[in-house]
Amino acid sequence: MNIDTLYFFKKKAEDFSFNESVSLVFDDMVNRSVPLYEEFQKLIVQYIVKYLVKDTNIYDLGCATGTTLILLNNQLNKTNTEFYGIDNSESMLNKAEEKVGRLAKKPEAIQFILEDLTTANTFLNPGCFILNLTLQFIRPVEREHILRNLYNSLPHNGFVVLYEKLLEEDSEFTRNFIDLYYDYKREKNYSDLEISKKREELENVLIPFTETENKNLLKKVGFSKVSTISKYLNFGVIIAVK
Question: How many CB atoms within 10 Å of residue 148?
Fold first, then answer.
């Protein structure tokens, strides 16, 4: 795994994007930047394996380097489940393809699609949609349309897994959680300069909602059952069932 030193050497600030440089270090970046990332992934996989509607497929929207799909594939490799990863970063998908070849038990069941989530609207028998740290990068005005399309595509008891960075209802808690979050990143050997540079690049690109705003949006598009299954500081996993 390549070590993330992008912001240690980077001189010029630009809007954050999932370009080739980020793709090369993404797995290290996300593990060192998101508290309990591996634990949240295990919980998400456990939930999906247990409650996926029989004979349906899994879609990971904004699948990055394919980590979640590989974990699911290795759990469900003796079933007929098909796994689809959609992302608008070609370099991310290239990395994902390479990882699938090395790590997946049933690689032929995983397919990656280069497409923007704002235009993706054709899904083959989906039972679950995963949005791991994805919706926060979509312009707020487009989020309802995307979620409504997912709702309309699911069968009864199909569900969405929404893993997001969250704001708190109270601004003081938001500030406190962010302070603790930056402490976490320092413990993972990111310097204050690296933290500051990345925060600047993400400022107008990553736009988080509160937990309540995310839940209300899911309910607005039609999901009848919405619950947070895990939360740690300013990150949480919400399940929405049709």
Answer: 14
Token pair 């993706």 is found at: 120
Block residue for tokens 């980020």: 22
Percentage, residues of the chain above pLDDT 90: 91
Tokens of 214: 């995310």
Tell me how crowded residue 193 is: count the other CB atoms within 10 A of its CB: 11
pTM of this structure: 0.95
C-alpha 170/C-alpha 222 separation (Å) is 27
Handedness of CA 234, 25, 42, 79 (dihedral sign): positive
Of 72, 67, 74, 78, nearest in space to 52 by CA: 72
Three-class secondary structure assignment of the chain:
CCCCCHHHHCCCCCCCCCCHHHHHHHHHHHHHHCCCHHHHHHHHHHHHHHHCCCCCEEEEECCCCCHHHHHHHHHCCCCCCCEEEEECCHHHHHHHHHHHHHHCCCHHHEEEEECCCCCCCCCCCEEEEEEECCHHHCCHHHHHHHHHHHHHHCCCCCEEEEEEEEECCCHHHHHHHHHHHHHHHHHCCCCHHHHHHHHHHHCCCCCCEEHHHHHHHHHHCCCCEEEEEEEECCEEEEEEEC
Task: Give the CA distances from residue 179 to residues 37, 173, 184, 185, in Å, rounded to whole numbers and listed in that order.
Answer: 18, 10, 9, 10
Go through the domains of the chain in sequence order and give each one's CATH number: 14-76+87-102+127-142+184-208 (3.40.50.150)
What's the rounded Cα separation, in Å, for the pair 30 and 24? 12
The string of pLDDT tens digits covering residues 41-65 is: 999 999 999 999 999 999 999 999 9
β pairing state of 110-114 and 126-132:
unpaired
